[in-house]
């Protein structure tokens, strides 16, 4: 595909500022990206979007950062970054062209040392265009990317507007309300346990760098390719689903989650439906001391619980049971506890990540001896934790950005549709991303396709169709 690459020089005019990665280090130096694809009606002049991206970078500092490691091995986002924002432009040829483009983009590693950790791709035509924004997960979540889309469209329609910097709000304990005594005691216990683990790791510690990262990324993308299965509900289908959920006092997210559990069971059968762990992404913007909205950053947590679809019960009953579990998990500070009690050593986080994603580095790579020797050491703390994490991966992971409120029109432009895409993993089963805009709900099912011509994609496409079928049949019954 013939892309034209444009270098967008940032004009933020700020001094060098640094932000410690903290909990965001979990995504440092691993192939984990999030993306939003905006389908826009109207003509977007190329020069206009170049100018707008400069303004957006000025508004949101994390868009332009790179990462530096200090002498204590702490990682920092720094605004001292000379690399331009990458913008690729090519001719839009079809409605689903963005899928192949984004699948290919996932193979290109972000350069943490040079930055930035975001890329823009414009599939352009005179009548309709697709704007793809892909970002390394350490600096943002899905809602942040939706906010960026809004900013871009607003500025395209208001080129005279001068923008102001919006300082990042980080998911650190000082930004959250005080925890109750019971939670504090639990966190103290976790701190003592984690302290012992950290001290054990310090005696075995292995440090990793960018060459190690490029080794694991290349080996990983040679072994697996990110694939995206897309389903789009019409306005009437979306409206009927929302009405059914209101009537049954459940959320759309609960209904969708149960639909995929039902669809998986229908396709695979009971004997292969044995991973009942559910993980749901949760927006925590309203849980800060001062709730935030338009801030760009990684402002999400999650809940995790067990749930088994019961075929002897009605679909609606399964959804009600699922919804009750969600409400129970959302009660209190459960979504904040992992952030309030973040006691793990930064280098141990790196070790866990490299133990997880370094498995496919072969002897043709420069760091094969280092990485293979590290991973084969089962007594190493990082390797043991990595194996435990892999064994506890959820069977269903769902991220729903909800119903995104937008302007009907942005001057001569109109936001017609959004798609939200998250990373997957060979260790995950169903990874679902959802977003609704202009009354239309879109879903993506994300998975890693092995290079051994496995048939997982065919099966997952069947699960996607069957899941929507379960949902549609239930909604029809009202």
UniProtKB/TrEMBL annotation:
Record-linked PANTHER family: ALCOHOL O-ACETYLTRANSFERASE 1-RELATED
Record-given protein name: Condensation domain-containing protein
Species, as recorded: Methanobacterium veterum
Signal peptide region: none
């Amino acid at each position: 595909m013939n892309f034209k690459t444009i270098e967008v020089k940032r004009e933020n005019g700020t001094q060098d500022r640094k932000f410690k990665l903290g909990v965001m280090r979990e995504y440092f130096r691993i192939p984990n990206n999030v993306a939003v694809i905006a389908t826009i009606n109207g003509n977007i002049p190329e020069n206009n979007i170049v100018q707008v991206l400069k303004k957006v970078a000025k508004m949101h500092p994390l868009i332009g950062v790179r990462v530096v490691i200090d002498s204590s091995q702490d990682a920092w986002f720094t605004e001292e970054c000379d690399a331009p924002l990458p913008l690729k432009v090519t001719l839009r040829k079809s409605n689903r062209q963005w899928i192949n483009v984004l699948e290919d983009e996932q193979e290109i590693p972000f350069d943490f040392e040079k930055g930035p950790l975001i890329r823009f791709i414009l599939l352009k035509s005179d009548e309709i265009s697709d704007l793809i924004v892909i970002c390394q997960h350490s600096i943002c979540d899905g809602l942040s990317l939706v906010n960026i889309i809004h900013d871009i469209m607003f500025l395209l329609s208001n080129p005279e507007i001068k923008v102001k910097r919006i300082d990042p709000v980080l998911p650190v304990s000082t930004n959250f309300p005080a925890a109750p005594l019971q939670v504090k005691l639990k966190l103290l216990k976790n701190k003592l346990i984690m302290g012992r683990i950290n001290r054990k790791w310090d005696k075995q510690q292995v440090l990793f760098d960018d060459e190690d990262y490029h080794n694991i990324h290349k080996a990983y993308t040679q072994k697996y390719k990110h694939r995206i299965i897309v389903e789009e509900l019409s306005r009437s289908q979306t409206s009927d689903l929302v009405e059914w959920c209101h009537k049954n006092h459940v959320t759309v997210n609960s209904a969708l989650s149960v639909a995929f559990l039902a669809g998986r069971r229908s396709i695979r059968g009971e004997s292969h439906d044995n991973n009942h762990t559910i993980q749901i992404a949760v927006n925590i913007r309203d849980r800060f001391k001062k709730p935030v909205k338009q801030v760009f950053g990684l402002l999400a947590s999650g809940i995790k619980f067990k749930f088994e679809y019961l075929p002897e019960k009605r679909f609606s009953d399964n959804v009600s049971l699922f919804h009750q579990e969600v409400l129970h998990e959302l009660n209190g500070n459960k979504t904040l506890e992992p952030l309030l009690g973040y006691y793990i050593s930064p280098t141990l986080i790196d070790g866990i990540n490299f133990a997880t994603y370094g498995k496919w580095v072969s002897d043709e790579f420069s760091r094969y001896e280092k990485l293979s020797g590290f991973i084969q050491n089962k007594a190493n703390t990082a390797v043991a934790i990595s194996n435990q994490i892999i064994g506890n991966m959820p069977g269903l992971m769902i991220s729903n950005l909800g119903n995104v409120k937008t302007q009907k029109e942005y001057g001569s432009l109109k936001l017609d549709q959004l798609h939200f895409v998250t990373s997957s993993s060979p260790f995950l089963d169903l990874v679902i991303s959802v977003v609704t805009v202009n009354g239309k709900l879109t879903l993506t099912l994300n998975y890693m396709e092995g290079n051994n011509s496995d048939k997982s994609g065919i099966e997952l496409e069947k699960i996607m169709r069957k899941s929507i079928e379960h949902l549609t049949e239930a909604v029809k019954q009202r």
